[in-house]
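Entries read chain and fold; for instance:
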Amino acid sequence: MIENPVGPQIPSILGSISRQLNNHNVPYALIGAMALSIYGLSRYTSDIDLMCDAASWPTISQGMSTIGFECFQKADAFAQFDAEGGILGRIDIMLIETDEGRAMLDRRVVVADELLGSQPVAQPTDFLILKLMSMANNAQREPADRADISAIFRLNDAGMIPRLFEPLDINRLTQFAERFGQRAVLDDCLRRQKP
């Protein structure tokens, strides 16, 4: 098991980002490796992955600049920030523009973590939906995203996902997998979990 699943600067940086977002009432949730760690699967990471409401983009951009992070790549659905030439790690922010995405933010759960402090975290079902969408948008991500999907199913089957999260919603996952053309991937991951 990884003793410390994040780079040494991450807790401090995440704290600064959280203060900026919370001070300006910007809803956000952890996704990515930090969310996986909170679900029960520690995996080292040196970056921070968040989802935020796209309507808050000006506030997000200003807040990140205030703490020394500059946007080096921006598209409609995401923004990437770094500071000091990447030495402090990268911040990837998924910008949510749909009612379904905002509902994911509404379902987030604030978790008190010894290393990361109190942070809002996406529900595991929503995390999996984002992984399915990621594969649909970039086929090169499939091996890593498929591994994360399988890992969450294993954690779920072992009863290791903290109970403060909602149970996995397979029906909702299936609906999104069909929408994203990823039903075969989801079915394969589910099939592999059966004893």
